[in-house]
Write a structure and sequence with these properties.
The protein has 684 residues and is of the alpha+beta class. The chain is 42% helix and 10% strand. Strands 4-3-5-10-11 form a 5-stranded antiparallel sheet, with helices on one face. Helix 11 packs across helix 12. One of its GO terms (cellular component) is outer membrane-bounded periplasmic space.
């Protein structure tokens, strides 16, 4: 149109020959009316009637133009107001990035308040943009958004087709078709908004999509989309879907290998109707569509003829072994029971909740529990339960998993509600009191058969006594008599410290308390060691980062606030002396040496009387983890100690969880700040 307008001219009356005025100049109306004047007018003779008509029409034209401009201004103002109202919320880059890379949940309260079945946890196995393979990228762009690389967040042609289709449906002359949404719009719908078929929601979706395109690169948007889209059978994110349906990964290297092009095509088509057609359900129809998608990928030049043929042959029916929905439903219930504030529990409107659950950590915790219980039962069938808790040093729950107790009495949570003997995992805190009083790891203590009270003589698990030894060796080998002797000197300090650290059960007011004769939960023990891992501050484990209304407004945010430091934990010298002793526990010759792996760490074993409970609790600069194995009904004939299977499972789980991560120093390996420890680094 620009080319046509530039050459279209009309000659004004009285203009010299060869002079023309552009149609876009202000005098174009005069030229138009001049064409309508009678041909019998003499040169320069005006027509009064034509002039009157011209002036009248000119005023009408000016009025219409003014009304048009006023209407345009009103529409623009309304659009700006509606836009500001529609996208109000926490949509800055940091907030959206956190939302895309954290576990979250749709919460739709029922009439009786929020229950576990009202919460749909979304915990994708997150991939970084650089981990998205070219095959995955091409398959999803071909299937979902071929203009993804060039559009600004929406595709005008696809949107126009969708509007036309919706109009035909509204008048009863068509059927529902595709929505015309781009990958960016689908990300907005899944991450921020809802699936409601509403024009205002669609308008908001478009506005937020435009905003996302200015905040993130195309690679980042695609990664966030692939991490959060639903693939059916409880699998959110392409990595979870690949493991669920094929037992393999989308990235290399993985021991299980990677999915092939045919399987990638099946996943790319699953997102259209994941509940009806996915690689585990409606497979036959999906395979036919996958062949068309592979052909389209060949037409786009991504696949050669031979590669396309091989991809079509790869559409096998092999399924994975991972029940992702089961794992995430357990994590959902644990998160819901540990930290949903009263204000949210009573809320009647839907919301989105961001949890602290880390999908990889949850997966490794589930596997650790399964392996621990399976191997323990080979030794003695009396062992019937196991659990794992993984925290970040600030108390955020990264993973929680338990075996059989989970299914008891409506989802009983053994991790927070179970009460078990902590064994020797509690011993370090009586040593901490002694270190605060000036004792050192080289201080001599007696490991002898000594009678303390009412004829009670504590024994060691191996039935032997080593005589005079250092505190370092007594702690590393978990000797009982030295710990009991310390209780008589530091009972008040010990009781005060354990109260401040948090005990949900009961600790007896007697010397046997330092041997673990009380009753605590696995989460209690995780809290104790988190205080050591973060530089001496008490923590309250939590599973909810924040909650937002469906329009994006924050209605709750977890506030860590200032945490208390128990008097002995506030003593850096005492705490660092203990940390060195706990390092010796996992070194050569220590009771927990099987728990060591290639990252700086410290920890402690624990075994209760008759071997009914076996523990290992330890921490690195990133995580605190507690592994528990228990016999509920009877004492095992072949008792397992905390330095055995629990330590081995701890090492395997933590080594996998830390794979590819830079080792972080422990709190006492970092320089002190103003006389206190530096804050523990957050996981990266």
């Amino acid at each position: 149109m620009r080319g046509v307008a530039s050459v279209a001219h009309f000659t004004q009356p009285g203009e010299p020959a060869g002079t023309a005025t552009d149609i876009l100049t202000p005098s174009w109306r005069t030229s138009m009316w001049a064409l309508c004047e009678p041909d019998d007018r003499g040169p320069g003779e005006p027509s009064e009637g034509a002039g009157t008509i011209r002036r009248f029409l000119s005023r009408i034209g000016d009025g219409l133009a003014g009304l048009f401009l006023l209407g345009t201004a009103l529409v623009a103002c309304a659009g700006v107001w509606l836009a500001s109202m529609s996208v109000a919320g926490d949509y800055d880059r940091a907030s959206l990035h956190h939302r895309a890379y954290s576990s979250w949940a749709y919460v739709r309260p029922g009439s009786e308040g929020i229950r576990a079945q009202d919460v749909q946890l979304v915990a994708p196995l997150h991939l970084q943009p650089q981990q998205i393979s070219e095959t995955v990228r091409e398959a999803f762009l071909t299937a979902e958004d071929r203009w993804f690389e060039v559009h600004p967040g929406f595709n005008p042609l696809a949107l126009a087709r969708a509007i036309a289709q919706e109009t035909r449906v509204a008048f009863g002359s068509g059927e529902n078709g595709g929505g015309g949404s781009t990958i960016t719009q689908q990300l907005v719908k899944n991450l921020i908004l809802t699936n409601d078929r509403d024009y205002l929601r669609k308008f908001r979706e478009l506005l937020i999509a435009l905003r996302l395109e200015t905040m993130f690169s195309k690679d980042e948007i695609l990664a966030m989309y692939l991490n959060n889209i639903f693939f059916g059978q409880g699998a959110y994110g392409i990595e979870a879907a690949a493991r669920t349906y094929f037992g393999r990964s989308t990235v290399w290297p993985r021991q299980s290998g990677t999915i092939n092009t045919g399987e990638t095509a099946l996943l790319a088509l699953s997102v259209r109707a994941p509940s009806r057609a996915n690689p585990g359900r409606g497979r036959k129809r999906l395979e036919a569509e996958a062949r068309d998608l592979i052909a389209a990928m060949r037409e786009r030049g991504f696949l050669t003829a031979s590669e396309a043929t091989n991809a079509a042959l790869q559409l096998d029916r092999r399924r994975g072994q991972l029940s992702w929905s089961m794992h995430m439903s357990r994590a959902r219930d644990f998160a819901l029971g540990l930290g949903l504030p009263t204000s949210l529990q009573q809320r009647q409107k839907p919301m989105v909740v961001s949890t602290t659950i880390e999908p990889e950590a949850q997966l490794y915790a589930e596997r650790a529990v399964a392996r621990l219980l399976e191997r323990a039962r080979r030794t003695d069938r009396a062992y019937d339960d196991a659990a794992v808790v993984i925290l970040r040093p600030d108390g955020a729950i990264a993973a929680m998993s338990a075996a059989q107790s989970y299914g008891d009495s409506g989802g009983f949570n053994v991790l927070s509600e179970g009460r078990r003997s902590p064994g020797s995992t509690i011993k370090p805190f009586i040593y901490l009191c002694a270190f605060a009083d000036g004792k050192t790891l080289n201080t001599q203590v007696a490991d002898t058969a000594r009678e303390f009270r009412n004829g009670w003589t504590p024994r060691n698990n191996d039935g032997r006594y080593l005589g005079g030894i250092t505190m370092a060796r007594a702690l590393a080998l978990s000797r009982n008599p030295p710990a009991v002797a310390l209780w008589f000197d530091y009972a008040d300090c010990f009781k005060e410290t354990m109260t401040q650290l948090g005990v949900s059960g009961h600790l007896p007011d007697q010397p046997s308390a330092v041997l673990g004769t009380g009753s605590v939960s696995p989460l209690d023990i995780a809290r104790w060691y988190a205080a050591l891992a973060n530089g001496g501050h008490t923590v309250d484990p939590y599973a909810i980062w924040y909650a937002r209304s469906m329009d994006g407004r924050t209605i709750f945010h977890h506030d860590l606030g200032p945490s208390a430091a128990p008097s002995v934990l506030a003593d850096r010298n005492a705490r660092c002396t203990l940390e060195k002793g706990l390092k010796d526990v996992v070194s050569v010759g220590g009771s927990g040496r099987r728990a060591a792996f290639a990252h700086p760490m410290a920890g402690k074993t624990g075994t209760s009387q008759n071997g009914r409970d076996a523990w290992f609790a330890g921490y690195t600069g990133r995580y605190v983890a507690v592994v528990w194995l228990g016999a509920e009904k009877s004492a095992p004939r072949q008792a397992i100690t905390g330095g055995g299977l629990p330590a081995l499972i701890f090492a395997n789980m933590m080594a996998t969880l830390h794979q590819g991560k830079t080792p972080l120093p422990l709190p006492c390996d970092q320089p002190a700040r103003n006389g206190t420890d530096a804050e523990a680094a957050a996981p990266g």
